[in-house]
């Protein structure tokens, strides 16, 4: 998959260094993936939450952080919509961000 806005993740791990390795691992896995539908993602990430508008919420570093991506399965692109702490995530609407 092609990942749009990797810089967002890099800027986040510069502020939260403990997120760097888990996010790099997620990037490597997502880059290699060829997800065609939400079930493909769930096979790789059982704890991922599929929400509306082709958005997926990933737990990062044992659920310390949350990553929301918008998936365009038809063209193989993941758009980073949000990365934040669990507390920050609780204040947003994953379906709209």
Structure description:
This protein has a single domain, classed as YaeB-like fold. Strands 1-5-4-3-2 form a 5-stranded mixed sheet. The two termini are 21 Å apart. Helix content is 36%, strand content 30%. The chain is built from 4 helices and 5 strands. By secondary structure, the protein is α+β, with helices and mostly antiparallel strands. The chain has helices at 6-15, 20-32, 38-44, 86-90, and strands at residues 2-4, 49-51, 55-60, 65-72, 77-85. A hairpin with a 4-residue loop joins strand 4 (65-72) and strand 5. This is Type II toxin-antitoxin system HigB family toxin. One of its GO terms (molecular function) is endonuclease activity. InterPro entries: Toxin_HigB.
> How many beta-strand runs?
5
Sheet with the most strands: spatial strand order: 1-5-4-3-2
- Helix residue percentage: 25-40%
State the major sheet. Answer: 5 strands, mixed
Structural class: alpha+beta
| Residue share in β-strands | 25-35%
Number of helices: 4
Mean residue pLDDT: 96
Structurally, the number of domains stands at: 1
Q: How far is it from the N-terminal to the C-terminal residue, by CA?
A: 21 Å
CATH topology type: YaeB-like fold
Dominant shape = globular
C-alpha Rg, in Å?
Answer: 12 Å
Low-confidence stretches: none
GO molecular function, one term: RNA binding
Organism: Microcystis aeruginosa G11-04
GO cellular component, one term: toxin-antitoxin complex
Protein name: Type II toxin-antitoxin system HigB family toxin
């Amino acid at each position: 998959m092609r990942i749009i806005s990797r810089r967002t993740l890099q800027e986040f791990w510069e502020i939260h260094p403990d997120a760097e390795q888990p996010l790099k691992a997620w990037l490597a896995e997502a880059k290699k993936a060829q997800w065609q539908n939400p079930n493909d993602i769930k096979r790789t990430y059982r704890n991922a939450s599929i929400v509306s508008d082709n958005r997926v919420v990933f737990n990062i570093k044992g659920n310390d952080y949350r990553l929301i991506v918008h998936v365009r399965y038809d063209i193989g692109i993941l758009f980073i919509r949000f990365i934040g702490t669990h507390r920050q995530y609780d204040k947003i609407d994953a379906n709209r961000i």
